[in-house]
Amino acid sequence: MTEVSHTPRVFSGIQPTGNLHLGNYLGALKRFVDSQEEGISSIFCMVDLHAITVWQEPQDLRHATRELAAGFIASGIDPTKSILFNQSQVPEHTQMAWVFNCVARMGWMKRMTQFKDKAGKNAENASLGLFGYPALMAADILVYHATHVPVGEDQKQHLELTQEIARKFNHDYETEFFPITKPVIEGAATRVMSLRDGSKKMSKSDPSDMSRINLTDDADTIARKIRKAKTDPEPLPDSVEGLENRPEARNLVNIYAALADSTAEAVIADHAGQQFGTFKPSLADLAVAKLAPISEEMARLMQDKAEIDGILKNGADRARAIAAPILKKTYQIVGMVGA
Ligand code: TRP
């Protein structure tokens, strides 16, 4: 099938469910800033409607949404260059999601591994929203005709479903209206592992706060967590192959490389043979230099909620200006009178 070409547009979303950490920064926020700096039209969304597919305390959701917005801005997302907003302020997402609920098949949805993981043993008790989550995600993306979606490896299946929905819609309505979105999957180099266990991803739900660096941690906390990070007794090897089967060592080298905008190869070349007693303080200095300004800026932004809310409202208005005509056209294609 020939696919009409759509102008490049980046879209990505993050759930406002608290505790932004180094993994979110290196795997998502920093990459988003890079795409903004390349001059690609970019839309970043705090997906509060996705967050409530599992229970959220209202005051926590409100706080997490503003804190996430502060995290985006403090990391370098410029809300005048990119569009930054929270999902619930743009009703076109849910309107498009309904159409996609009618395009997606039960069989496709039942295969979604994230639903199975999140619903756990008691799937009968999961919310209907959790089951429909991927159709809303497809709507987030396609209501802007986004062409590129930077996400983590765990979202690959959802993006394939987005493509499936676009293809079926285009096929059923004999159109080429929706682009087939390209997943831009995060590479291993930016995948940040727990500081306590190099085989587990850094996670906001890990009970040990020492396992992660939160974007709200101050300089002393960042340095302490790196000094206390789990390692092995060997010095750093003289080539990256020597990091195989040394997950903790590899993780610290990867973090160093990502923070320094370098590569694991270059970091190893500079630090070969060093003991962790020497390498960790260098990494701590680098991490403090890069991350402490972010936590300071987040704290400053969080002082002025009205300013954050104003930025999100402005982003939502600009997002709607793009989404509304695409939804209208979708309704026309589907046969809705009045669209
Ligand atoms: N499901 C994504 C996650 O948990 C968040 C998300 C929602 C998203 N909508 C999106 C990501 C659209 C990219 C594009 O990480």
Characterize this entry briefly.
The chain is mainly alpha-helical.
What does this structure look like?
The protein is mostly helical. The protein has two domains: 9-190 and 307-334, 3-Layer(aba) Sandwich (Rossmann fold), CATH 3.40.50; 209-299, Tyrosyl-Transfer RNA Synthetase (Orthogonal Bundle). Helix content is 53%, strand content 6%. It has helices at 22-37, 48-51, 58-75, 92-101, 106-110, 113-119, 128-142, 156-172, 219-227, 247-259, 264-271, 276-302, 305-334, and strands at 10-14, 42-46, 83-86, 148-151, 182-185. The strands form two sheets. It has a three-stranded parallel β-sheet with strand order 1-2-3. It has a two-stranded parallel ribbon with strand order 4-5. Strand 1, helix 1 and strand 2 form a beta-alpha-beta unit. Helix 3 (58-75) packs across helix 12, helix 9 packs antiparallel against helix 12 and helix 10 (247-259) packs across helix 11 (264-271). The radius of gyration is 21 Å and the shape is globular. The two termini are 28 Å apart. The mean pLDDT is 95. Residues 11-13, 15, 47, 50, 137, 140-141, 149, 151, 155, 158 line the site of tryptophan. Tryptophan binds at residues 11-13, 15, 47, 50, 137, 140-141, 149, 151, 155, 158.
Mean pLDDT value: 95
Please tell me the CATH architecture of the largest domain by its name: 3-Layer(aba) Sandwich
Distance between the termini: 28 Å
Structural class: mainly alpha
Q: Low-confidence segments, ≥5 residues, pLDDT <50? A: none
How do the helices and strands follow one another from N- to C-terminus? EHEHHEHHHHEHEHHHHH
Could you state the CATH homologous superfamily of the largest domain?
HUPs
The number of distinct β-strands equals: 5
Radius of gyration: 21 Å
The major pleated sheet works out as: 3 strands, parallel
| 3D shape | globular
